[in-house]
């Protein structure tokens, strides 16, 4: 009897916290500066330098914990995690080990119409390491340069329970977590800049078995697509290995996006011995209930709350509401449109359709687009007033997206005003009918496609500018009258 396997996935997510300065010094966290220009003796690991905790980091960590339904520790501490790597100047990282600031949280995802709760084991504060920049290739002597601008940037590591069972669930979790972090205002979550990174722990086991299988860890997945594909590939690889009688080795993997495969980086047969011990330069942190309550009172609307509001107040379908609330900027755009254009479903159709298509095509976020809410509303009103058709509106919207021009200006410049004058359309229709007597006979013999032919001919002659409703009405009158 064939063994059926299930995939087990847990994620470790590193979110860069949105502070102006680093976690233990005053250096800037701004992205994109020249290498090693945002460094001081503290974050460069000079001997004898003392770290000073950035209070804003603690506040954002508490805010995250509240957003993730987690317990906030009244007492936590920092520990030294010891390992050697060229971009870790102190040869240890300041992190949190057995007393993290947040634990026992959860978030809810939706897969195939079913809700599922994913547990969050812990979230802890730590500093980022630097970055290696590799130079040279096989034709020269390769070498690496170290940029310490990122060293000391504040991170929150969020560790899930192994509650996910597929790449799709892992992706849904990551998308939901990103939305929560964005709405809570704790991270900009720019995966392309490394401010949201993910490691996936993947194992498989026979269905019904409680014990977990041997896991592998896929490092540094920096897109939702990469995460989903990597998890599914690695699970398939492990199942095929087990079916061939092989043993799964606990190891660290990397994902090759181009080839679509995971590759082994190094063996990890036992847990790393980081020789944790409490950092002697940082005192234990005591968090008062009053501070937690103050932060709780200042919490903004979160994705689940916003989704429910859109469904309750505007009657949006659950799917539409979930898409609109994937980012606070998308929701803000939608809400601003709603102030002057109350047709929520039409708005969501355009934002999930043409807006989403052009955002993806140009690889930008909604806050970067040239179209403003008032521009989209103005265009939708032109459709409602019969000035342009829905088909023409798509061309107008794309031009608005690329240039930022008002829809009225685009319609006027390109001569796109919809033709609704019955006299003008009657003349065209009479000419088209007279030129196609066979198709007229087909229509009168009950062939429905014949009517569509005439509509298409009118649209072709007017380059899509004829009012479809009026064209249909006039055509029917003309064809039926002459029959």
Q: What features would you describe in this structure?
A:
- The chain has 483 residues and is an alpha+beta fold.
- It has three domains: 5-291, no CATH class; 299-414, no CATH class; 422-482, Arc Repressor Mutant, subunit A (Orthogonal Bundle), CATH 1.10.10.
- It is built from 15 helices and 16 strands.
- The strands form four sheets. The protein has a nine-stranded mixed sheet with strand order 2-6-7-10-1-11-12-13-14. Strands 5-4-15 form a three-stranded antiparallel sheet, with no helix packed on it.
- The termini are far apart.
- The relative contact order is 0.10.
How would the blueprint of this fold be written?
Blueprint: E1 5-16, H1 55-67, E2 71-72, E3 75-76, E4 79-82, E5 92-95, E6 102-111, E7 114-127, E8 131-135, E9 143-147, E10 154-160, H2 167-184, E11 196-206, E12 216-221, H3 224-243, E13 251-256, E14 261-267, E15 277-278, E16 285-286, H4 289-297, H5 303-314, H6 318-324, H7 328-338, H8 344-362, H9 373-384, H10 390-403, H11 407-414, H12 422-434, H13 437-444, H14 448-461, H15 468-482
Parallel strand pairs: 12-13
Antiparallel strand pairs: 1-10, 1-11, 2-6, 3-16, 4-5, 4-15, 6-7, 7-10, 8-9, 11-12, 13-14
Short description:
With 483 residues, this protein is α+β, with helices and mostly antiparallel strands. The protein is 40% helix and 20% strand. β8 (131-135) and β9 form a beta hairpin.
How many helices in DSSP terms? 15
* Average predicted confidence as pLDDT: 90
Instruction: Describe the oligomeric state of these chains in a short phrase.
Output: single chain
Number of domains: 3
Quick one: overall form? elongated
Overall helicity: 25-40%
Radius of gyration: 29 Å
Largest sheet: 9 strands, mixed
Strand percentage: 15-25%
Overall structural class, as computed from helix and strand content, comes to: alpha+beta
N/C terminus separation: 71 Å
Care to count the β-strands? 16
The order of strands across the largest sheet is: 2-6-7-10-1-11-12-13-14
List segments where confidence is low: pLDDT < 50 over at least 5 consecutive residues. Answer: none
């Amino acid at each position: 009897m064939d063994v059926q396997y299930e995939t087990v996935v847990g994620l470790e997510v590193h979110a860069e916290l949105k502070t102006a300065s680093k976690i233990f010094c005053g250096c800037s966290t701004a992205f994109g500066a020249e290498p090693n220009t945002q460094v001081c003796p503290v974050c460069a690991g000079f001997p004898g330098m003392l770290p000073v905790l950035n209070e804003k980091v603690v506040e954002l960590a508490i805010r995250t914990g509240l957003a993730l339904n987690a317990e906030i520790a009244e007492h936590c501490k920092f520990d030294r995690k010891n390992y050697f790597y060229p971009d870790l100047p102190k040869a240890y990282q300041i992190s949190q080990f057995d007393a993290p600031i947040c634990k026992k949280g959860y978030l809810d995802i939706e897969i195939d119409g079913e809700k599922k709760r994913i547990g969050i084991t812990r979230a802890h504060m730590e500093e980022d390491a630097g970055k290696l920049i590799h130079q040279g290739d096989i034709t020269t002597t390769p070498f690496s340069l170290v940029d310490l601008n990122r060293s000391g940037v504040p991170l929150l590591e969020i560790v899930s329970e192994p509650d996910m069972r597929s790449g799709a669930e892992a992706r849904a979790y990551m998308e939901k977590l990103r939305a929560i972090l964005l709405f809570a205002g704790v991270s900009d979550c720019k995966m392309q800049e490394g401010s949201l990174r993910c490691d996936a722990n993947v194992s498989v086991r026979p269905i019904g078995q409680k014990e977990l299988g041997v896991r592998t860890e896929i490092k540094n997945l920096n897109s939702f697509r990469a995460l989903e594909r990597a998890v599914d590939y690695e699970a398939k690889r492990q199942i095929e290995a087990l079916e061939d009688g092989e043993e799964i080795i606990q190891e660290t993997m990397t994902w090759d996006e181009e080839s679509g495969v995971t590759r082994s980086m190094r063996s990890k047969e036992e847990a790393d011995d980081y020789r944790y011990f409490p950092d002697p330069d940082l005192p234990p942190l005591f968090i008062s209930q009053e501070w937690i309550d103050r932060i709780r009172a200042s919490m903004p609307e979160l994705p689940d709350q916003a989704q429910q509001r859109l469904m309750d107040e505007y009657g949006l379908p659950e799917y539409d509401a979930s898409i609109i609330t994937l980012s606070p900027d998308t929701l803000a755009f939608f809400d601003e449109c709603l102030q002057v254009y109350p047709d929520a479903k039409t708005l969501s159709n355009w934002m999930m359709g043409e807006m989403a298509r052009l955002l993806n095509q140009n690889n930008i976020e909604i806050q970067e687009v040239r179209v403003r809410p008032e521009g989209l509303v103005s265009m939708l009103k032109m459709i409602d007033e019969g000035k342009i058709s829905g088909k023409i509106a798509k061309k107008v919207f794309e031009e608005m997206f690329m240039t930022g021009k008002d829809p009225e200006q685009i319609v006027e410049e390109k001569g796109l005003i919809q033709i609704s004058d019955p006299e003008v359309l009657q003349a065209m229709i009479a000419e088209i009918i007279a030129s196609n007597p066979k198709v007229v006979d087909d229509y009168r013999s009950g062939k429905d496609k014949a009517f569509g032919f005439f509509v298409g001919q009118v649209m072709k002659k007017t380059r899509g500018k004829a009012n479809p409703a009026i064209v249909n009405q006039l055509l029917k009158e003309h064809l039926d009258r002459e029959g």
